[in-house]
Amino acid sequence: MQKEKDNNNLQILREIQKKEKEEENIKNKKEEEAREIIKNMRINSTVIRNTSSSPLIFYQKRQNTNNTFEVMIYCSDERCSFIGIHNPQVNSNNRYINLQVIQNHFAIFNLLPGTYHVCSYSKESLENIGFVEVTIQPQM
User: Fold this and answer.
1) Where is this region: Disordered (predicted)?
2) What is the pLDDT averaged over residues 85-89?
3) How far apart are CA 43 and CA 107, in angstroms?
4) Integer-rounded Cα radius of gyration of the chain
């Protein structure tokens, strides 16, 4: 009786592990597709410094004429609904946060050079899904 129960539990565990692996493969495929989309857009991009593990991926386009940089953000988490971004050196009290709704896992911001705090949120719970600190700077 116990052996049969153990075998059932082992089978359930294997199915869970298989499903988790499939979900991880789907996530990796979506991230690779996002990178390919950006590459096909011919953006002169570099990955910006990411200071934490997060579902967010950043790409910086070359400098615009008004000294801003177009920054493309990809959020791999399905729950991600919108992105909040602010510069803590300029805006230390977090009163002015630039928010943008995610469209097909992407958001695009025009930012001046500097260090920014970026958070991704779920609209269902307003849960903070990911946080990163990124540095926007001219590419050498």
Assistant:
1) 1-27
2) 84
3) 15
4) 19
